[in-house]
Amino acid sequence: MDELEAIKVTFFQECEELLADLEGGLLAMQDGNDDGDTVNAVFRAVHSIKGGAGAFGLEPLVRFAHVFETLLDAVRSNEVPATPDLVVTLLRASDVLADHVSSARGLGVVDEAVSAAMAAELKACTDPNAAPAPVAAPVVEAAAFEAAPVAAAPAEALIGADDALDDDDLGFDFQPMTITIDEQAADVAAAVGNVWTVSIRPKSDLYRKANETALLLRELARLGPIEATLDASAIPPLDLLDAEAAYATWTVRLETEEDETAIREVFEFVDGDCDLEITRGEGLNPDAALAALLAGEAPAAAPAAPVAVAEIPAPVVVEAAPEPVAVAPVVEAAPAPVAAPVAQAAPVAAAPAAAKTQQIDVPGPGQSVIRVDPERIDRLIDLVGELVINQAMLAQRVGEYGIAPSSNLAMGLDELEQLTREIQDSVMAIRAQPVKSVFQRMPRLVREVASMTGKQARLVMDGENTEVDKTVIERLSDPITHMLRNAIDHGLESPEERKAAGKNPEGVVRLAALHRSGRIVIEVSDDGKGINRERVHSIAIKKGLISPELQLTDEEIDNLIFLPGFSTADKISDVSGRGVGMDVVKRSVQALGGRISITSRPGQGSTFTLSLPLTLAVLDGMVVDVAGETLVVPLAAIVESLRPKPEEVRPLGPVGSVLAVRDSFVPLIDVGLTLGYREASPPPTEGVVLLVEGEDGSRAALVADAIHGQRQVVIKSLEQNYQQVDGVAAATILGDGRVALILDVDAVISLRRREPPRPVEPTLIAAE
Amino acid sequence: MPQASSISVLVVDDQLTMRALIRNALQQIGFKDIREAPDGEEALKNLLAKPANLVISDFNMPKMDGLALLRAVRSHPPIRQTAFVMLTGRADRELVQRAVQFGVNNYCVKPFTVQGLRDKIEQVFGQLT
Fold first, then answer.
1. Which residue range forms the structural domain that includes residue A714?
2. Within this chain, do residues A398 and A447 fall inside the same structural domain, yes or no?
3. Are residues A446 and A539 part of one domain?
4. DSSP character string of A365-399
5. Which chain A residues have a beta carbon less than 8 Å from that of B14?
6. Which pLDDT does position A64 carry in this prediction?
7. Which residue from A minimizes the CA distance to B126?
8. A-contacting residues of B 69-88, CB under 8 Å?
9. Which of B22, B35, B91 sits opposite A159 (nearest CB)?
10. Which of A125, A324, A520, B79 has its CA 20 to 30 A from that of A418?
11. Quick check: B109 and A168 CB within 8 A?
């Protein structure tokens, strides 16, 4: 029964997709899109969940889905009109259905009362004349299903439970139509005659062993007339072409009285050196046949695609498809026997264009999707991370031995580095996922929060297909949830207030994802009242979070809400209560190397902006020395590095100093001092300065002792292995096996700002 | 008496779970050559590329539903005689009647057991060994 368990896992995965389809369809209906396709897709989602659930005997789920489906069926057949109110009910029902799925999965409990009430409501919608019997409803349902043979023994498990049936005919006269395999085969044979399709994909070994396709084609031609088609689309551009590799695929239409064995015999000597596929019939272009069928025609046989035909033993002509593309149309090679490598190399010039026009579909079972256990991919990524570290170590060792960069060894290593990078990128791409999986949970949240707070809110989502590494996706859910709750609870006004302000009583909350300079940015905006700055300011002063004398810009006031211990709600609601404040959100976001900020316009709304790195697995960094420690500064933050001249360093105030970079002044920050590595800074002129730019665009000049170079590093969470450290984003392992800390540039900048005044540092005296 | 292992089957259902369950049932009966397609359009492409002896198809699918697939199969000479078993719920009675008009070989009402499915296939091909 292990296999059934495995199918059950698939079922729950599929349920997630179906629930998303269901919600998506219902939301489309809410937006006025209630065409038949949408309604049918909604129906099908519930129907499919019910069908699968029945097969696994998940009775409560089946029962609820059945009631839901019945109503949707009525909507589908226009017996029940899809009014906006009904769609809202259906959306709530989809939430309950999702709870049932989670419960069947063992991931939660269904509130029976809610479920029963919902089922009763659905029934009432299906049949408005039925007596409302909300309490009795689930009992009746249960009774109806007791008769169902769902709980059969596993060996007789029911497949695709649909309705409670104890008979298997639909009560009309029907004689199954019998057929024999021979009759079918005769049909196929009559239709295709003695035509075979032979697909030959030589491997490079075939040529290495001095065989060639032309000879094989000639052998095939002895069996009967052939038409050979060359698929040259796999030939790469010249600079990527490996002269000894094999790129071409031949598809041969062969008419012969001989059987498959005779055809295979032709390839006896190249066994294993080429991929061979022999199918009966034309098998060439199902798309054309399909198009003809859909157009109402019934062709006698699928016509062969009129592309690139070469007959043997006539001269081989490789021709691009007769599309009006400016491809070098005919590339003539020598008459047969053609030297295969020549035939392969010949169409190179035309290859990129030919690749587009010359499509020869080798019949396949359609595009398939592989479902892989995420743990396997994680393991792969970990391994690639180790590989990157290992490769760096190797490169470093070789460097230490003073091997010339032009030596074979060094060049081989360069190649290895490039390959390692490519592998890493490809592997990371496997794990990249659209943020959709997180976004699709949000409409429900918005519905629930809105109803809890008595607000009317509509969620608009944008950029759901923005891709980001899985490690980041998993961490997006909490902050987004918080920002949305905050936007509805604190941002949006009550419907009455909104009306009074001349706004639509229904507030709009927008959730968007986008890529910006190598990071993912999530924006949550509302069209509510905006932040009440006066109040925020006074609360911050009252709570002792800031000093009353401090002059703050509007933006600074807005961002006070991220301070620990800040809460503006007059009464603490269930929704965005004290449990997790925005400060906690900010901290957890920062721990991921992310930033969160808010901007607000009074009366018009607020926008939360959250940005995170695209991956939490690797980082391009600059390795620097500071006070005997090795640190990594994220490359994305570095604008330039320079060696300051004494005249460029100017003191600012009693403790600070700035660096004159061309026409502007940038505060100088000694990283060693900020992180507590040393008590006093050496003169900046003796070190190196990294000009960095923070998320908010503020610049700073970080002083380090020396720069080692640029490197890609594998991020190891410091929090998971040790604890969070201010100013440090994470750690990594360097080529020589040492652990180095990765600097959190923004945190270092803000740490420096907040630092209490220190005694005048010798740096400045020296600089002066 | 045909051997189940010599009959090629194409399972058509938009639901991965259902395809897996049907495949599992077919394997228990003794079928070996089992292919799958997620909708009628893919199924038809698949059949045109490589005919099958038996199609077991769901009815309600996106793109091309089971009924349209049946009509297309019947109108294409090489695969005209493909045995076609439609999976259906009780609610779809009218659809089954239409499928009968279009020449469905048999239908199978969900939920069904492995034995039930076997019976339906045997009614078409004769007893399976």
1. 618-767
2. no
3. yes
4. S--------HHHHHHHHHHHHHHHHHHHHHHHHHH
5. 44, 48
6. 92
7. A178
8. 72, 75-83, 87-88
9. B22
10. A520
11. yes
Number of separate domains in chain A: 5
Q: Which token pair is A467?
A: 């891709």
In a domain, A331, yes or no: yes
Low-confidence ranges of chain A (pLDDT < 70): 1, 128-173, 191-193, 281-369, 517-518, 567-580, 591, 616, 654-655, 695-697, 753-768
Interatomic CA distance for residues A407 and A175, integer angstroms: 81
Residue A719 lies in a domain: yes
Domain co-membership, A246 together with A322: yes
**Beta-carbon separation of A163 and B90 below 8 A:** yes
| A46 contacts on B by Cβ (under 8 Å) | none
Residue-wise pLDDT for A600-645, tens only, equals: 888 889 999 988 877 767 778 899 999 888 999 988 788 888 888 8
- Picking from B2, B49, B110, the nearest residue to A162 by CB comes out as B110
- All domains in chain B, ordered by first residue: 4-125 (3.40.50.2300)
Residue type present at position A644: P
For the entire predicted model, the pTM comes to: 0.53
Whether residue A167 is contained in a domain is answered as no
Pairing mode, strands A706-714 and A688-693 = unpaired
Surface-to-core class of residue A483, CB atoms within 10 Å of its CB (0-12 exposed, 13-18 middle, 19+ buried): buried
- Could you report the per-residue pLDDT of B3-41, keeping only the tens digit for each? 888 899 999 998 888 899 999 999 999 999 999 999 999
Same domain for A454 and A603, yes or no, is yes
Cβ of B46 and A165 within 8 Å?
A: no
Taking the CA of residue B32 and the nearest CA in chain A, the distance in Å comes to 15
Instruction: Indicate whether A402 and A509 sit together in one domain.
Output: no
Residue A1 is which amino acid? M
Chain B: closest CA distance from residue A57 (Å): 11
Q: Is residue A179 part of a domain?
A: no
Please tell me the distance from the alpha carbon of residue A214 to that of residue A461, in angstroms, as a whole number: 58
How many Cβ atoms are within 10 Å of A441's Cβ, its own excluded?
16
pLDDT of residue A516: 76
User: What CATH number does the domain containing A731 carry?
Assistant: 2.30.30.40
At A381, the amino acid letter reads I
